[in-house]
Design a protein that fits this description.
Length: 858
Amino acid sequence: MTSVLSASGRQTRRVADLVRAGVSGAPVSISLLVLMWVLGAATDNLGRPSRYVTRQFASGILAFEHGRVWTALTSGLWAPGLVGYLVATVAILLAAVPLERRMGSGRFAVAAVSTQVLGTLIALGVSEAIKVVDEAWGFRLHVGVALSPTPWIVGVAMVASSSMNTLWRRRLRVGLIMLLATLALFSGHLLDMVRLCSALVGLALGPVIVGRSARGPRLAGTQREGRVLVALVVAASAIGPALAALSPNAVGPLAVLRELFRGVDWTPSEVRDLCAQSRTGEDCRRGLLGLRLGGLGPTILSLMPSVFLLVLSDGLRRGRRFAWLAAVVAQVVLLALSLLNFGVRYVGFVGEESLFYGLDSPNLYRTLAPFLTPLAVLILLLVTRRFFTVSAPRGTYRRMWVRLAVFGVGLGVAYALLGLLARNGFDRRPAVISLVADYPQRLIPPVYLQWLDPRFLPNDAMTTLLYEWTGVLLWAVSCIAVAATFLAPAYGAATGGTEHARSLLIRSGGSPLSWMTTWRGNRYWFAPDDVSYVAYRVISGVALTTGDPVGPRESLRATVTGFAEFATGNGWIPCFYSVTGELRAITDSLGWAGIQVAEETVLHLDELEFKGKKFQDVRTALNRAEKSGVRAEWISFPDAPLALTDQINAISEEWVADKGMPEMGFTLGGLDEIDDPQVRCLIAVDEHRTVHGVTSWMPVYRDGRVVGWTLDFMRRRAEGFRPSMEFLIASAALSLKDEGAEFVSLSGAPLAKVDTRSDPDPDTVSDADAEEARERGTLAAVMDTVLDLLGRTLEPVYGFRSLLAFKSKFQPDYVPMYMTFADPAALPSIGNAVGRAYLPDVSFGQGLRLVRTMMRSS
C-alpha cells in the first residue's frame, strides 16, 4: 500500500512539474487554455454551442452590423462544442506552447491578438465581397459565425515561420496555406475563411514581429524539396473533394464536388416502382443515381480516385516519372469532366434531363470553379516536370500491368460466375453476357455512370456486396500495386543500366570516384565484352563522362577508344571529365588534349595518426567534441530514424538556401545520392540526439571487396558544433582504419588545384612531339585560364578553393584530376556542357545573382 501511494505521489509530482514548466515557459498559451475552459464552463458552452455565447461573443457580419465589434477578439476565446475544445486544447499544447517558447511571450501575445483581430476583419470584408460572384456562398458567409481559437493559433504559426530555417519555413507555409485554402474552398464556412485570413495576416506580419531568418527570405531549394512541395499540392487537391463529401454542411465553391461521392438514400423497390411508371422520367433517373451513389461501397468507390492521387503523391515525393505521368493524366481527366460539366449545364449537349453533378440550379461561377483546381495542378506539374526523372527498375511496370490485367480478368470471371449463381438476388435475372458487359461499369466511380441505365440492380446482401464492392477491390489492389513500384530501388532515368553498372563496379572496381557513375542522370555505354562501362551524359552535343571507365585496367585503352567511336558515331563530342592521370596518359597517346579541373585529396590509413603540430586543428576538434558531448555515429540514411533524417534534410536545405543558388550536381552529391543503402553516413550528434553535422562516404571496390571510402556529402548545422567537419572526417578516418580500409579519399575540389607540379623537361621531349603539343595545347591553355578565372569568381558562392584549403588540415596526398578531349576547337561547347552539368536547373534570376556575385568579386 505504501509503495502504491509513493508511486502515485511521484506521478502527481511529475504532472505538477510538467505544468509548472509549461506555465513558466509559455505563460500566455497556458493562461489562454485555462481561460478558454473556464469561460466555456461558466457560459455552459462545453457540451454544445450556447446561443448566448454565439450571439454575444462569436464573430460574424451580423454581429458587426449590430455593433458587437468586440467579437473580433472574443471569438478566439471560446470553441464550438466539446470536440472544438478538445481540438483547440491539442493545438495549443502541441503548437502554441512550443511557438511561445521560441518567440517569447511578449511577441507571442502580439502575434496572437493581431492575427486574430485582423484576420477576422479581413475575412468579414472578403465574405461581403463574395456575394458579388457567388450569392449562395456569400449568403452562407453573411449569416455564419466564427467561434474558435484556431485562427490565432495558425496565425501565430505563420508569424513564427518567418524566423524558422528554410526547410521548415517552406514546408509549414506551403502545407498550412494549402490545407486552409482547401478547407475554405470546399467546406467554405466563415470560420474557414477567418483561419485562412489569419494565416495570411501572420505571413505578412511575421518579419515585423519576429524578424526574418538569419539567411533572409531566399527560396532556393533542392530538387528533392521541390518534389515534396509539389506532392503536398497534389495531395491537397485530392483530399479536398473528400473533405467536401464528408462534410454534410459544406458550402464552399468546390462543395459541388461532393456530388461525386454521395447520393440520396433509395431502396431498389422504390426505384423499381418509380421506373415502372416512366423509365425516362426525372424521378426514375434520380432514384437510379441515388442507388449508385448511396451506401458504403459506392462512397468508398467514389473516394478511390482520391486515394489513388494520394498514392501518386508519394511517388511524386520520390521523384518517380511514372507518378508524374499518371498525375498529369488524372488532372487531364478531371479537366475533361469539368468541361463536360460546363457543357451539360450551359451548352446543353447532353440534354436537360442530365443529372451530372446533381440537379442543382446552374451557376456559371460554381460550374467553372471545379475546372480551376485541376488546371492549376496540371500547370504546376508541367512546370516542375524536370523534378521527376526517376524510373523504376527495368520491367517493373510491365510486370505490374501484367499482374493487374490478370487480376482484372480473374475478377471479371469471378463477378460473372458469382453473379450467375446469385442472379435471383437481382431485380432482373441477368444472363452471363449481361454480367460480362456490366463488369466494366462496376469499376467506374458511380457518379460517372449516370447517363447509363443499369441493366439490373441488387436486391439482397450477396448481390449488393458483389455489385458495390467489386470495383473497390480492383481499385485497392491497383493502389497497392502502384505504391509497391515506388518502393522498388531506383537510380534515375537509366535504372536498368545502373543496376548492371553497379554489379560490374563491385566485381572489378574502379577509381575512388567511380561510385559517382551510379548516380542519377548518367547513361551507360557497355563495352562489347560486357566487363567495362563508361558513365556519361549528353549535353548540347557533348558526351561528358563521369570519371574513368570502370572495368579491368588492362582493357582501359580499348574502353576509351570504343566509347570515343560510339560517341562520334552518334554525332557527339567525346569528353572524359574528372579522370585520373592514368587515363590522361592514354588519351595523350591518342593525340587528345587535356587540362586539370580538380584536385583529389587522399589519406593513406596504414600509418595515419593525428599527432604533431600540423594536426593541431584536428586534435582540437576531437577534444572539443568529447567535452561538448558530441559523438560520431554511423548510419544508413535509407534506414535511419525519421528524427535523424529530418534534421539532415533541414541542415541541407538551409545550406542550399544560404547559397541563394541551386545545389550543384554532376560530381557533387546531395540528399538523393546519400539515400543509398551502400553509402554510409557519419553524423555528429549530442546527448539530445541533435544532429550537428553529416558526412557521407562512398565505397571504393577492388576485386569484389571494399578497400577504401570516398567523402562526398558534407553539411554542418549553422548554429551547431562549429568544428563538426574536422571532427567527422577525423573520426571517419580512424574508424575506417580500424575496419581495415586502405585509404579514404576526401574527393576532388572542382576548379581548385595545388600548383606543385612542374612542366616536362624539354630535353626529354622530341621537337615533333613538342610542336604537336603546342598546337594541341593552345586552346587548352586558354581554357585552363578561363577555368582558373571561373574558380576565383565562383569562390564567394561555392567556396571550392576554401574547401581545398580546409582539406589540407589533414595533410593529404594531392592527386590531380583531368578533363581530356579529342578536339580543342570544341572547348566552348565542352565548357557549356560542364557548366550545365553542374547547374542544370539554374533559373534566370539565379543566373543574374551569380553574375552580380562574380562581378563584385572581380
